[in-house]
Amino acid sequence: MRLLLPPSETKRDGGVDVALDLRALSFGSLTPVRAETTAAVVALAHDPADMMRALKLGPRQAHEVERNRHLLDSPTMPALDRYTGVLFDALDAPTLDAGARAYAADHVVVHSALFGLLGAMDAIPAYRLSHDSRLPGVRMKALWRAPNTAALEAAGGLLLDLRSEAYVELGPVPVHADAAFVRVVSVDGSGRKRALNHFNKRAKGLFTRAVLTAQPQVESIEELIDWAHEAGFSLSLSPEPIGAGVRELELVA
């Protein structure tokens, strides 16, 4: 089973003094695309005004330009530790024990706008780039969509997509019985469901942490649903698939 997470705009600083090595990242088929995006980001960062416009940054975010300028020589840390924000704060990866972190290395993928699909323990620097950022000569969707989806297809197995729909556009999951998109919903007093925004990230973080801690032995969506109920989560199949036929799961927050 793989859990596919979105990234976060916010990142931790620091890490170890080992520079980014694109060839060492998971999903090696993405290396050529990663080289193209990182080169474009570093080049643009040498014109701070242009980069701030491209990334829609305000004056208080000027430090993000420096992060991008030093992308190739700044400290690195595991992707799961690098990202912060609501989902990653709920996941709280730095407090996971060694067994849970080892499980995450094999079962968690983070989808970065800059690097594409990343293994949880892939070493990356702090950076700033979003799914809707504009880089000179680079169209993010056209660049990433096919390579990301091909990498997911090649990986195979049970796949749970916890990304936002914006990142799904940069690499939809393959359509098969063991892949599903997770939508976080709330249920009101009348039983009606509605999708959540802010709180959906926290629910996804808590669910991911529970999986990493319990390490359930599941091989299908149905087995995952059974485990989730035992673990105290309300997870169920939506009656209608999304998009081009991908199954949808509803996680009640």
TrEMBL record:
Question: InterPro entries given for it?
Answer: YaaA
Q: Which GO terms describe its biological process?
A: response to hydroperoxide
One GO cellular component term noted in the UniProt record for this chain: cytosol
- Entry's Pfam families? H2O2_YaaD (PF03883)
Q: What is this protein called?
A: Peroxide stress protein YaaA
Q: Which organism is it from?
A: Agromyces cerinus subsp. cerinus
